[in-house]
Amino acid sequence: MRARLPARLPARLRTIRLLILVLLMAATGCGVGTTAPQKAGAPASGIQRPGTRADHARLYFVGPYGLRATTRPTDRPLLPQQALDLLLEGPTDAERERGLISEVPPMNGRLTATAATAGTVDIYLPVNIAELQIAAVSQLACTAAHSEVTGDEPPTAVDIRFHENLGRSPAPWTVRCDADGNVHPRTEDAPR
């Protein structure tokens, strides 16, 4: 003969199972551990007021891992000469703290740059281009390409023409700055 369980036992088992389930859920939590408040840095800043316009100059300096772009606020878009003058001043203290330097030698106001035509900048160097580090050439070319150049050309399609010895060299050396900040000679069959 088999023993019969009392009728109330299944209800009691359901209650015990439910209680065990609730205790297990409370013990495991939601997976988030308890932590104290964590420091996350300075609050957001620099948000423009609606209807105002902020301009920035994009300058290129040399960092530990190659050419690096940095931006500086300006009150208006800068022409190539203005952008290169800012570059020639060198990195700010904050940029130096990030490891940025300039390979462009002092040129004592003898470097000139003009936006010749839409999508073309002429840079007149007081020296032969072979006397400059390739990083310096890249700094000059990419900074000029990202200045306020007439036309709707993207910076990667701007021709930068280097004239050596303040234009006394026979023909300019034409380069383009790619999206990574590398300078490449412009070939005649390159798309405009």
Give the structural class: alpha+beta
- pLDDT below 50 for ≥5 consecutive residues: which ranges? none
Secondary-structure element sequence?
HEEHHEEHEEE
Strand content: 15-25%
The oligomeric state is: single chain
Residues in helix, %: 10-25%
The radius of gyration computed from the alpha-carbon positions, rounded to a whole number of angstroms, is 32 Å
- Widest sheet: strand order? 3-4-5-6-7
Strand tally is 7
* Main sheet makeup: 5 strands, mixed
Amino- and carboxy-terminal Cα gap: 99 Å
Average pLDDT rating: 82
How would you sum up this structure, described in words?
By secondary structure, the protein is an alpha+beta fold. 24% of the residues lie in helices and 22% in strands. The protein has four helices and seven strands, in the order αββααββαβββ. Strands 3-4-5-6-7 form a five-stranded mixed sheet. A two-stranded antiparallel sheet has the order 1-2. α2 packs across α4. The N and C termini lie far apart (99 Å).
Summarize the structure.
With 192 residues, the protein is of the alpha+beta class.
Q: How does the SSE layout of this entry go?
A:
Layout: H1 9-28, E1 55-63, E2 66-74, H2 80-88, H3 93-97, E3 112-117, E4 120-124, H4 134-145, E5 159-163, E6 173-177, E7 183-185
Parallel strand pairs: 4-5
Antiparallel strand pairs: 1-2, 3-4, 5-6, 6-7
Helix pairs in contact: 2-4
Feature tags:
4 helices, 192 residues, 5-stranded mixed beta sheet, single chain, 7 strands, two-stranded antiparallel sheet, alpha+beta, 22% strand, 24% helix
